[in-house]
Every structure is written in C-alpha cells, then in structure tokens.
Amino acid sequence: MELSESVQKGLQSLADQSVFDHSSFQVLVDVSFRSLLSSHGDPTVLDQPELKQVDQILLKQSHTAATTFILEAVKQNADKSTISSSLEELTFSAERVEIFYSAYQVSKTQSFSSFSCSIGRRLPHVNDVSWRLQYHMKNAQVDKVNEPFYLISLNTENEGSSEDINFSCTVEQLQDLVGKLKDAAKSVEKASQM
After folding, report:
1. Considering the entire predicted model, what is its pTM?
2. What is the mean pLDDT of residues 122-147?
3. What pLDDT is recorded for position 187?
4. Residue in 39, 31, 101, 18 with CA at minimum distance from that of residue 60
5. Can you tell me whether residue 176 is helix, strand or coil?
6. Residues 14 and 107 in one domain
7. Is 107 found in the same domain as 15?
8. pLDDT given at position 167
9. Domain co-membership, 107 together with 150
10. Domain range holding 29?
C-alpha cells in the first residue's frame, strides 16, 4: 500500500513497544476502528485513560496514521497478506499485526451487518422539483453584485411522510449538481445491468 511519510511515521510509533505497550496498543487500535464505524460522538483517543501516559502529539499522529491505514486497506479491499506485509515493513511485531488484523476483520463484519440492517429502510425519494431564478443586484454593503441564483425545492417522500428540502445555489453549483446527478444515474444504470 502507498502511504505518506507522516502515516508511515505514525504507524512506526504505534509499532514501537516502548511508546505503546501491549495494553495501550490494543486500546488505540480499538478506538481507531470505533471512530471510523461510529456515527455519533464516542470518546476520542485523548479521553482514554489507558493512553494518558503517551505523549499527546504522538498519540494524535499514531491515531491519524492508524485510521488512514484502515481506510486505505478498506478502499483496496486488502487481504490478510497485504495488511500483514505492509505492517511488518513498518516494524510491527507478528503479535501486533495479528491484533490489528483481528480488529480489521471484526470491524468489516460489524460494518457489513450494520449496512445489512439498513437495507430494509428506504431512503427518501424525490417526488417533485420546483425552482425559481432570482437575481442579486446588491448585497448588504450596497456593493453591486449582479449575480443570478436559483431557489430549488425538492418534494421528497419517505415511508408515507412528505418533506420539502429547500436550498439556493449559483449557476455553477447547479451545473455541478446536475452533473453529479447524471453520473449517479449512469452508475445506477450500470449496476442494474450486472
């Protein structure tokens, strides 16, 4: 895996048994995976009592490096040999590689099961779109602006309840949105043909 120099340094610090003993290593790995899986405010790495003895800057660097490595591994759908060889190159002991990989496997399973649970819930779908073109002539500082913008209203429905989503955007933002929607539609079309 291609890792930046700062990520490599952070992981090498995490591999160093004089900086992170067995207990603090385990806690940092667990917190790193939890922080990526959690959608709400779990305690941060700095709040962990087992990590109070570690230099706070080094702790942040190692946590950032660990989460970056995890995301890169997930992005590449890395297997055990890829993860092991990458960590061993960064001076991880076999025991620490095994601890890290075990946490990786558990987290993959948890994220898949939480994804499976959410499949039953429907995302809201757009029923109707309305828009209006506005024109800013001046701003609050009495400067001339002379810029068009759009007021967009999306009428959405989810499980019988209706909701309007309103936003404004410039011409460039609207063009970007339309382009992304076209790309998404093409992706859905390709996925449905597989």
Report:
1. 0.57
2. 79
3. 84
4. 31
5. helix
6. yes
7. yes
8. 87
9. no
10. 5-119
Q: Give the separation between CA 192 and CA 46, rounded to whole angstroms.
A: 45
pLDDT tens, position by position, 126-138? 889 999 998 877 7
Q: Which of 77, 94, 119 is the last residue of a domain?
A: 119
Each residue's pLDDT tens digit, 58-108? 999 999 999 999 988 888 888 999 999 999 999 999 999 999 999 998 887
Task: Provide the edge-to-edge strand list for the sheet that holds 161-170.
Answer: 125-138, 144-158, 161-170
Of 119, 143, 158, the one marking the end of a domain is 119
As a whole number of angstroms, the distance between CA 46 and CA 163 comes to 40
Same domain, residue pair 93 and 146: no
Looking at the structure, tell me whether residues 24 and 107 fall in a common domain. yes
Verify that 107 and 156 share a domain, yes or no: no
Note the Cα 23 to chain centre separation in Å.
Answer: 27
Where do runs of H (alpha helix) occur along the chain?
5-15, 22-37, 56-75, 80-89, 94-119, 171-193
Give Cα separations from 89 to 4, 45, 94, 97, 131 (angstroms). Answer: 14, 25, 11, 11, 56
Token digits for 121? Answer: 């819930």
CA–CA distance, 132 with 30 (Å, rounded to integer): 50
Query: What's the average model confidence in pLDDT over 165-192?
Result: 86
Structural domain total, the chain:
2
A 10 A CB-CB count for 90 gives 19
